[in-house]
Amino acid sequence: MTPGGEVIGHPWTTIWTRPRATIRRIVETDVRYQVTFLAILSGALIWLERRWSNPSPAAAFPILVVIAVIIGALLGIVELYINGILLKWAGAALGGVGTYAEVRAALAWSRVPVIVAMSIGILAILLGTHGPQLGGAVSGSGASVTLLHAVLVLWGFVVMLKCLGEVHRFSAWRALGAMLLLIFSIMLVVIAVVVIFGGMNALMHPLVAV
């Protein structure tokens, strides 16, 4: 347990119903509290569920499962830092004051519902129930797992907006605006790159046919 663990209390339970108060308590006590662990765990579980949901025979190979978990854990950390940088910038553009560490904490702790969703999906697969990502015909129990999975992931998104809003000192709606601004900015960059490189390609390889 990190130094502020006892003061922070039980954020794994309070993050569900009091995300703003929970993330405020975390960033004021120990902004790095379990942040890396949550990033690793969520990434590993997402890739593990994806691997086991794959109906191909290769999914049964233990080495591939281990590799998938390792890759997922590493990507979980990479994603956390990249998204932390981007959402720190997008939030600041709308008047947010959250630091990089605070934004990372908000993103990491908002993954708790997703971690639970992935865990339920993995458990359903182990018990022989259709997991949330399996294709084909879905049984009644499989449909229930899929619905629960979707609800938890959706609630995780709501928690993320509330946590981001709290660390940036604005509303969850403005946090949503920051995300939309980020998406719009990325689209503009992609379009600009395509236009620039497309134009350069046209100059270097002009059409000779009329």
Give the key terms.
210 residues, mainly alpha, 9 helices
Summarize, please.
The chain is mainly alpha-helical and 210 residues long. It contains 9 helices and no strands.
- Detail the poorly predicted runs: 133-137
Q: Strand percentage, roughly?
A: under 5%
Order of helices and strands: HHHHHHHHH
The structural domain count equals 1
Query: Given the C-alpha coordinates, what overall shape results?
Result: globular
**Any idea what the radius of gyration is?**
21 Å
Helix content: over 70%
Q: Can you count the beta strands?
A: 0
Give the class from helix and strand content and strand pairing: mainly alpha
Major sheet description:
none
Overall average pLDDT: 84
Number of helices: 9
Intertermini distance? 72 Å
What are the SSEs and their pairings?
Blueprint: H1 5-8, H2 11-17, H3 19-29, H4 35-53, H5 62-93, H6 100-109, H7 112-126, H8 140-168, H9 172-204
Helix pairs in contact: 2-3, 3-8, 4-5, 4-6, 4-7, 5-6, 5-9, 6-8, 7-8, 8-9
Mind explaining what this structure looks like?
The chain is an all-alpha fold and 210 residues long. It has one domain. It is built from nine helices and no strands. The chain has helices at 5-8, 11-17, 19-29, 35-53, 62-93, 100-109, 112-126, 140-168, 172-204. Helix 4 runs parallel beside helix 7 (112-126). Residues 133-137 have low confidence and may be disordered.
